[in-house]
Amino acid sequence: MATPVNMPQLGESVTEGTIARWLKAEGDEVEKDEPLCEIDTDKVSSELPSPFAGKIEKLLIPEGDTVDVGTEIALVAVAGAGKETAAEEEPPAEEAPAREDATAEAPTEEFPSAGTEAQPVAEDGEKQHAVAGTRSGGDGLVEIESAETLRLTRSSPVVRRLAGEHDVDIAEISGTGIGGRVTKKDIEAYIEEREEEYETPGLKEEREAFAPPEPEAMPVREPEREPERERVPVYEGDRVMDLTSIRRAIADRISRSKREAPHAWSMVEVDVTGLVALRERVKEEFESREGIRLTYLPFIVKAVVEGLKEHPVLNSVWDGDRILLRKRINVGVAVDLKDALIVPVIPDADELNILGLARKIDDLVRRSRSGQLGPDDVTGGTFTVNNPGALGSVVSLPIINHPQAAILSAEAIVKRPVVVNDAIAIRSVMNLEVSFDHRVLDGGVALRFLNAVKKRLEGYGPESEIW
Predict the structure, then answer these.
(1) I need a surface site. Which of 51, 209, 283, 298 has the fewest CB within 10 A?
(2) C-alpha pair distances (Å), 268 with each of 109, 272, 388, 401
């Protein structure tokens, strides 16, 4: 008898996943822990290892389809589970009725999934609200949220897209997911019910007949609603690219950041001639001793961490009527994947030296580009460092990684003529920009933070120690 493989929960707030690519076909043999398929979620893409060895009997979900956590996605005939096992499990004929009764009375688990624990279900509205009221973030800190905010902000990109397409307020839907989250099934059922209700004969006329008369006073101008998006015409020779879960998650997060946070930004110029000389002196020895390349990014992250200690308001979150200052400094590092952008996190970056940061960054970048990041690698960030200079950028305006308060961009290091002691000299110079949430802090604080980072980077010289 075939054993099902279920869609795993790849993260605390993840409620569904997309089968990006099957790595095995029906009839193939699979070993335990051998990659079975690639799964995309709104947080990370990763390979799903087979929970057991056997033969692929049936692939239940086609590539590109999105399903809820716990959904059966494949059937595997487990190796060693033969006819003898089935005969042992089959009850005697006279015991069959009793077994049927026991099965009928036994409670069923809604989403069974190997390796996951059953989640508590709220018994009433009050308890459900209590569950939705708090959650523990990946950084170990508790974020306070209302039930309505939870349904909206922790619903999946698919749910938010359907809500936008059908003009549905997610807060109006009672979610059946964990902690009251609205699932794809919830919103589809809501839309279907609304359409059936509207199409009921006589219902529309009845509503119009009993509707209160419109006031004769001058009508109040309603706020303008965003017009429905029209499909862009596709011409001969055009190619249509379907959105991946990561691409859609980036679009949703960036749009929300620009919509909710009033962005402001500042820039400083940094003379890193001494840092360039230091790296040139030690880079070959560093690679020989440590087995990894020494880049400028560990020095930048170290300077940022020290700057955040001096100006902790940049390591914070806007929370409606208050500001949460994060205790831990978990720095996210933006990694370019050619067709996407991912931000793995260095937890407790303030506890690492240059060598420790270099090792951690190298590990995260390699695993990002090989699709080996886990959910814990991309959650809990409190501040983000962007590095467009690696691709030659000299000026950029980064968008804040919601819900953080700020993000720093480090640009390319270029040689420029600079006035030093009333003389013109050729120096290695880079630009640093910080975008910040103007609700949380003002330009003065942002510039003091930038100047603290600048001071530390300019403090390196050819003889500085890194070990």
Answers:
(1) 209
(2) 57, 12, 16, 21
What's the angle, vertex CA 276, arms to CA 272 and CA 277, rounded to 5?
120
Q: Are the CB atoms for 39 and 69 separated by under 8 Å?
A: no
Answer whether 77's CB lies under 8 Å from 28's CB: no
Closest CA to 156 of 341, 340, 19, 13: 13
Between 240-254, 355-369, 429-443, the lowest mean confidence (pLDDT) is in: 240-254
- What pLDDT score was predicted for residue 428? 98
Q: Give me the pLDDT at residue 66, please.
A: 87
C-alpha to C-alpha distance for 459 and 467, rounded to whole angstroms:
16
Please report, in angstroms and rounded to a whole number, the separation of the first and last CA atoms in the chain.
Answer: 58
Which of the two residues, 90 and 181, has the higher pLDDT score?
A: 181
Q: Which of 1-5, 171-175, 204-208 has the lowest mean pLDDT?
A: 204-208
Specify the residue for token string 């001096």: 310
Catalytic residues: 438, 442
pLDDT, tens digit (0-9, with 9 covering 90-100), for 173-188: 888 775 677 877 788 8
pLDDT of 153 above 80: no
Torsion of CA 250, 252, 254, 260, to 10 degrees: -160
Give mean pLDDT, residues 222-237.
73
CA separation, residue 443 to residues 31, 263, 320, 450 (Å): 57, 11, 21, 10
Measured CA to CA, the distance from residue 247 to residue 372 in angstroms comes to 18
User: Which residue stretches of 370-436 are H helix?
Assistant: none
Q: Identify the structural domains of the chain with CATH numbers, from first to last.
A: 2-105 (2.40.50.100), 125-201 (4.10.320.10), 263-458 (3.30.559.10)
Average the pLDDT over 284-295 and give the result.
96
Give the amino acid at 415.
K
Reported as type and span, the H/E element at residue 317 is strand 316-318
Take residue 454 and report the two structure tokens written for it: 């600048």
